[in-house]
Specification:
6 helices, mainly alpha, two-stranded antiparallel sheet, about 190 residues
Length: about 190
C-alpha cells in the first residue's frame, strides 16, 4: 500500500494532492520516517504529501472541489462589485479648517496693502469713507474663497460650491436680481 502511494506521489505535479488532503509534512501523527512509518512522508490525512514532521500542511482542493469554486465565482459575478464604503460627510477635516483660518491673516494684510497702494497711486482723495474698507473686504473675500477652492481642488479634487453644500438655483437668475434690488429698496425706505 505504501509503495503504491510512493509511486503515485512521484508522478504528481508539485502542489497536487491525492484527493481533498494536503501537500506538506505531517504534524507528528503521520507515518513519516521519524514516527516509525514506512518513510513515505505521507501525513496522517488521506492525500497528505510531505517530507517530515516539521513542515506545515498546505491544503489543495481536489477535482471534486472544482464545481464548488466555479459556483462561488458565478455567485460573486452575479452579486457584482462590493459597494464602496459610505463617504464621510463632511469630507474635509479640522486640518483643512485650521489651514483656512490661517489664510485670513495674510489675506487681510494683502487686501489692506493692495487697497492702500491703489488709492495712493490713483490719488483719489474724495472717496467716500466706506470705499477703502469695502474694497479691502471684497479682496479679502475673493482671496479666502480662492484659498478654500484650492484646498478642495488640490486635496480632494472637489468643486467649491458643491463641497459647501450649495445646489443649483431653483429660480431664474433675473428673478433673484430683481428680488435683491427690491429688498434693498425696501430697507432704504424703512
Amino acid at each position: 500500500m505504501a509503495g503504491e502511494r510512493d509511486e503515485e506521489e512521484r508522478h504528481m505535479p508539485p502542489g497536487a494532492g491525492s484527493g481533498p488532503g494536503a501537500v506538506g509534512g505531517d504534524f507528528g501523527g503521520g507515518r513519516g520516517a521519524e514516527s516509525g512509518g514506512e518513510g513515505s512522508g505521507a501525513g496522517s490525512e488521506p492525500g497528505a504529501v510531505g517530507g517530515g514532521s516539521g513542515e506545515a500542511l498546505t491544503y489543495v482542493r481536489g477535482p471534486e472541489a472544482g464545481a464548488e469554486v466555479e459556483e462561488e465565482a458565478r455567485r460573486e459575478a452575479r452579486a457584482g462589485p462590493a459597494e464602496p464604503a459610505p463617504e464621510r460627510y463632511p469630507f474635509w477635516n479640522y486640518a483643512d479648517l485650521f489651514l483656512f483660518c490661517g489664510l485670513t491673516v495674510p489675506s487681510s494684510l494683502f487686501a489692506w496693502a493692495a487697497v492702500r497702494l491703489f488709492f495712493s497711486l490713483t490719488h483719489i482723495r474724495n472717496a467716500p469713507p466706506a470705499a477703502e474698507p469695502l474694497a479691502e473686504q471684497l479682496i479679502l473675500y475673493l482671496m479666502l474663497f480662492a484659498g478654500l477652492s484650492a484646498i478642495f481642488r488640490i486635496e480632494y479634487g472637489r468643486p467649491l460650491w458643491r463641497s459647501l453644500g450649495w445646489d443649483r438655483l431653483r429660480l431664474p437668475f433675473v428673478w433673484i436680481v430683481v428680488a435683491g434690488a427690491a429688498a434693498a429698496y425696501l430697507v432704504a425706505i424703512l
